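TICKET: design request
STATUS: open
ATTACHED STRUCTURE:
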């Protein structure tokens, strides 16, 4: 297998030394890993059960999901499959592939949240299968199975696989590219080279240049750590590969250039690239160490073991190029993302498989030696971190259930109990030296927690979400009263998606005046504070029809949204201030 030092098995039924830890878990492991299809089938089953749980009963999450789903709806209505549109305006934020895939799945499964999320669901499952495949080549059948299960139940992986956004798709294509690089490190392969360029082209069609930057950062770091990157580069068949890459990505990029007369590129380069690398775009900044800190929770419980696994791999990187490959895959994207002022945790999603594979390597190494993980200081630290975070999380879930009566209390309490019990059981087994059984116990607990969270807890919290209910009620009132809708400051994309068609939005007083010239009464949604402020500053009468109470996910607190009929008021504002003294036509409505 080239320069890689791997755990090999001569047949699918042979296991590495030390697997016979005890009991039913070992028998189950042999049964699953002893047949070629059972291990990936079980990984895919676990992934899809949690990725699909509750999707049909959970509305789209503001703000990205409704933007993508609404854009797909408007593209279909317009018959324009080149330029995405949102609320009657071009949307240049991302390339086209995610929109195309959502259009396909919503055509099959329905124009609803379930259909819009299917591409991410399937991509998330595919990423887990690719992790299993890479792990099988590097660690043997059981190591790959454990790595795949870790990915399938990791909170950040499940969360992104349940969202109608681009990140799960990007991770799938980039992990596919990494799998091709692994194959090429073992020897020349035209198929692997062409698949690499195909994955890269699809990733570029999903999220643009960031896909190239992430794969380059991983490869460069792996090369610095000792992975044979130069040999792999020669095997990539650059000329033919670039043609394949261009054949996949170039047609749409040329088509959108013509269709938008360059506007797409001006926005994509000037805003999406330049601003993200120079400023904390859209208030998405973060302190150094942002990814490390949040990954501790988002990739729990496996995050507790990453330092020990990384340290062990670091010590062996010169003699184990496969470990250098995994280390570079984990560290390279992290270093690149830490250099950017715009920080969001899901940017690191394509690198989490490397973390899972390193932890699975550590598990296999420790189990094959027949010693407990607590033998080493970092192993004891990992166990301590797991139990502290696990019990703290269980306590927080129990407190949330106790403080918030209603339909969310039972699932919160159940998740708390499972987390506490699973953490204790995994810790006991790890202390006994049953390393694989301990990790599988944790995986089973998190499978249950993720399934309950997606299938019960989040749907039970639907009544606290505001924007979709506001959109539906505005649309119903508009049909009943014959009054058009205009959105002022409250312009959540979920309102537009729930309404089912584009809505008028205004950002300046002059825009509102222009609409009121033709329609003397309008329907809108405002907070109580906004209703008072608009009435005083802009000489508007606002009659509240009903109030929608809920939780503002963007602000993290409860709020009330009033559905109002607004019209001009003849008398001037009752209270003057600096805003009122400005030209009324220039007064901003959206702050």
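STATUS: resolved
RESOLUTION: sequence designed for all positions
ATTACHED SEQUENCE:
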């Amino acid at each position: 297998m080239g320069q890689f030092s791997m755990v090999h098995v001569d047949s699918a039924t042979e296991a590495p030394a030390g697997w016979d830890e005890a009991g039913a878990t070992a028998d189950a492991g042999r049964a699953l890993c002893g047949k070629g299809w059972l291990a990936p089938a079980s990984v895919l089953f676990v992934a899809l059960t949690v990725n699909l749980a509750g999707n049909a009963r959970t509305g789209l999450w503001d703000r990205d999901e409704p933007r993508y789903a609404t854009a797909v709806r408007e593209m279909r209505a317009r018959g324009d499959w080149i330029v995405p549109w949102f609320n009657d305006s071009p949307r240049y934020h991302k390339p086209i592939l995610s929109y195309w895939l959502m259009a396909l799945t919503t055509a099959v499964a329905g124009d609803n949240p379930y259909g819009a999320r299917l591409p991410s669901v399937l991509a998330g499952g595919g990423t887990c299968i690719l992790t299993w495949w890479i792990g099988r080549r590097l660690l043997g059948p059981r190591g790959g199975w454990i790595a795949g299960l870790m990915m399938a139940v990791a909170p950040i992986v499940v969360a992104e696989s349940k969202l109608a956004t681009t990140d799960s798709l990007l991770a799938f294509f980039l992990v596919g590219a990494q799998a091709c690089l692994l194959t090429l490190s073992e020897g020349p392969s035209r198929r692997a080279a062409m698949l690499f360029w195909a994955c890269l082209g699809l990733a570029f069609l999903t999220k643009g240049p960031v896909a190239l930057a992430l794969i380059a950062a991983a490869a460069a770091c792996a090369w610095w750590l000792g992975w044979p990157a130069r040999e792999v580069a020669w095997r990539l068949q650059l000329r033919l590969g670039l043609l394949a890459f261009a054949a996949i990505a170039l047609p749409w990029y040329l088509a959108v250039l013509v269709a938008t007369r360059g506007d797409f590129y001006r926005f994509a380069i000037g805003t999406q690239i330049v601003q993200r690398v120079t400023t904390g775009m859209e208030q998405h900044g973060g302190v150094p160490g942002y990814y490390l800190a949040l990954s501790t929770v988002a990739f729990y419980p496996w995050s507790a073991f990453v330092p020990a696994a990384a340290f062990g791999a670091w010590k062996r990187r010169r003699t184990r190029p496969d470990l250098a490959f995994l280390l570079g895959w984990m560290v390279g994207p992290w270093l690149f993302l830490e250099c950017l002022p715009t920080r969001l945790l899901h940017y690191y999603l394509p690198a989490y498989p490397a973390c899972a594979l390193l932890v699975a390597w550590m598990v296999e190494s420790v189990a094959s030696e027949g010693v407990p993980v607590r033998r080493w200081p970092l192993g004891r630290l990992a166990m301590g971190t797991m139990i502290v975070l696990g019990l703290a999380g269980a306590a927080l879930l129990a407190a949330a259930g106790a403080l918030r009566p209603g339909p969310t209390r039972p699932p919160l309490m159940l998740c708390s109990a499972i987390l506490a019990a699973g953490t204790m059981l995994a810790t006991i087994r790890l202390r006994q030296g049953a390393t694989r059984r301990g990790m599988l116990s944790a995986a089973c607990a998190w499978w249950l927690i993720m399934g309950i969270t997606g299938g019960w807890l989040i749907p039970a919290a639907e009544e606290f979400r505001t924007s979709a209910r506001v959109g539906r009620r505005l649309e119903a009132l508009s049909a009943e009263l014959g009054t058009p809708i205009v959105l002022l400051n409250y312009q959540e994309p979920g309102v537009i998606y729930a309404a089912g068609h584009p809505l008028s939005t205004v950002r300046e007083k002059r825009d509102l005046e222009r609409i009121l010239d033709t329609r003397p009464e309008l329907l809108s949604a405002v907070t109580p504070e906004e209703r008072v402020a608009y009435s005083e500053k802009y000489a508007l009468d606002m009659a509240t029809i009903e109030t929608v109470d809920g939780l503002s996910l963007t602000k993290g607190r409860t709020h009330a949204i009033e559905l109002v009929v607004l019209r001009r008021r003849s008398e001037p504002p009752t209270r003057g201030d600096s805003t009122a003294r400005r030209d009324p036509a220039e007064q901003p409505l959206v702050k």
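CLOSING REMARK: The chain has three domains: 27-369, 370-463, 465-586. The mean pLDDT is 90.
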